[in-house]
Amino acid sequence: MSKLVGVLGGMGPMATADFFRKLVEETPATHDRDHVPVIIYSVPQIPSRDKAITSGGESPLPQMLAGMHALKKQNVDFVVIPCNTAHYWYEDLCREGGLPILHIVDAVRDELSNGHAVEGPIGLLSTEATLLSGIYRDRLADRGIELMVNTQEERDEFINPAIEWVKCGRLPEAGRAVDRAVARLLDRGAQKLILGCTELPVALEAIASPRMGSCIDATRALARASVRRARG
User: Fold this and answer.
1) Catalytic positions, written as ranges
2) What angle do CA 67, 41, 3 make, to 5 degrees?
3) 3, 82, 97, 189: which has the fewest Cβ within 10 Å?
4) The CA-based dihedral angle spanning residues 109, 114, 119, 124, taken in that order and rounded to the nearest 10 degrees
5) What is the separation of C-alpha 181 from the centre of its chain, rounded to a whole number of angstroms?
6) Which residues does residue 154 pair with via DSSP β-bridges, in sequence order?
7) How far is it, in rounded angstroms, from Cα 194 to Cα 109?
């Protein structure tokens, strides 16, 4: 029997829904009973992860731990968090939450090891807080991967607004903005791009961007890793 997956979600709701859809899509199944059992904790009132890191806003850790404890009471076997920036608190969540957590960057590492190996720089699109936290840089460092990011001006014009537009349902606008940010990195020589914020694949998929083929979707990578872990 598959292990029970706990999802610490709500950061944001659309990204959590996108993760669940991709978890279903990535599960080889012929009947309902073949799918992975999941319990989702989605509380969008968790304080902003980005503001906590970039401007000293209220820490989301206490409310994320409340979610971890709620999932533990449901006897989940492990937890996944479909929010890149939340992994800034990964060690605290593992230590104080009492459950193993699959790290989203480790899932991306798996993708890079399985058919996505490239020579040359890899572009990273993410929130300001994820860039500041260094979670991608640190966990990919031993692979000798050179990361390329958009300029501050491009992040302000394309990426940051797109993330907010996804959160309020303006998906076509968000998709066009992300598509332009992706194009800028490809033009500068990025061989592959990591969509390192879980709102970004939602945006690109909304406009069926052909550039999605140049991207590693961290959400889908986490879904695949979850299926592998759940099915043993």
Assistant:
1) 83, 197
2) 100
3) 189
4) -40
5) 18
6) none
7) 10
pLDDT for 129-176, tens place per residue?
999 999 999 998 877 788 999 999 999 999 999 999 999 999 999 999
Phi/psi for 38 (5° steps) reads -140, 140
| CA distances for 115 relative to 75, 108, 112, angstroms | 34, 12, 7
Q: Which two tokens stand for residue 15?
A: 């990204």
Going from the N-terminus, what domains does the chain have, and what CATH number goes with each?
5-103+221-231 (3.40.50.1860), 105-218 (3.40.50.1860)
Pairing relation of β-strands 122-125 and 147-149?
parallel
Only one residue has tokens 């994820």, namely: 130
**Predicted local confidence at residue 16, as pLDDT:** 98
The continuous run of DSSP H or E covering 5 comes out as strand 5-9
Residue of 181, 179, 205 whose CA lies nearest to 21: 205
- Contacting residues for 217 by C-beta, under 8 A, at least 6 apart: 22, 195, 201
Residue with tokens 């690109």: 204
DSSP state of 157: I
pTM: 0.96
In angstroms, the CA 107 to CA 136 distance is 11
CA atoms within 13 A on the CB side of 200: 29
Residue with tokens 């083929």: 213
Report pLDDT digits (tens) over 186-230: 999 999 999 999 999 999 999 999 999 999 999 999 999 999 999
